[in-house]
Amino acid sequence: MSMLDALAPAIAGAMAHPGFWWLAVTLAAAGIVRGFTGFGSALIFVPVAGIFLPPVHVIAIIALVEIASIGALVPRAWAHADKGQVALLVLAALPTVPMGLWIMDLLDATIVRWIVAVFAGGTLLALVSGWHYSGRTTLWVVIAIGAVAGLLGGMTGLTGPVVVLFYLAGGRVAQTVRANTILFLGAMDVVIVANLMLRGFTDMSILWLAALLSVPYFVGMLAGQALFNPAQEALYRRAALTVIGFAVLAGLPIWQ
Question: Where are the bilayer-spanning segments (predicted)?
């Protein structure tokens, strides 16, 4: 028996998962947006995935899929990021990720979906309107932003919104915003998966589902990265916000 024959049942089982092709298409779009903006994949995937999966599986899949693709984005982002500030954000998030996962366990799945809709929709409105944090970037502000991002990431999988709005403050250039968010989100994916493993998460069907879904995400992300051009920042933002808007609307619990 070949290795492919041995893996075939697991692959077939993952592809038979309800909503598999919707999830694959959604992650392909999320990958393109992540590739040329550095963020937005969770804002696109999490609302749609909540239609087909319980919250813990949504969180596990988006984190695992992004970990599988870290190598495609991090090397280029490393040279342009403020690594000291990103490290501080990650350190602040470390204790709040398990708190977020604990809160997620206590909540009904529909409530989690509404929380996702509120935060994703609120982030979308803030980005469309141009609102962002405009206060001083002090040490305690950075720590607070990281802590809130970790809590929200553990509870819903939406690690990025708080940090993205923070990094849009102060007129930072698109390349720096993109690099910082790529490093932070990559680190947080590792932190979330580590916490899930410590909690005993070993659902092989979800691991296989994440492995298969990483393919369209990775391809989309490479395409998005190839498209990235700082001179076209406004165009990329409009395209990304449009896709995020459709995902938020599609994932509203009112449709079920």
Answer: 20-46, 84-104, 111-133, 139-169, 181-200, 206-228, 235-255
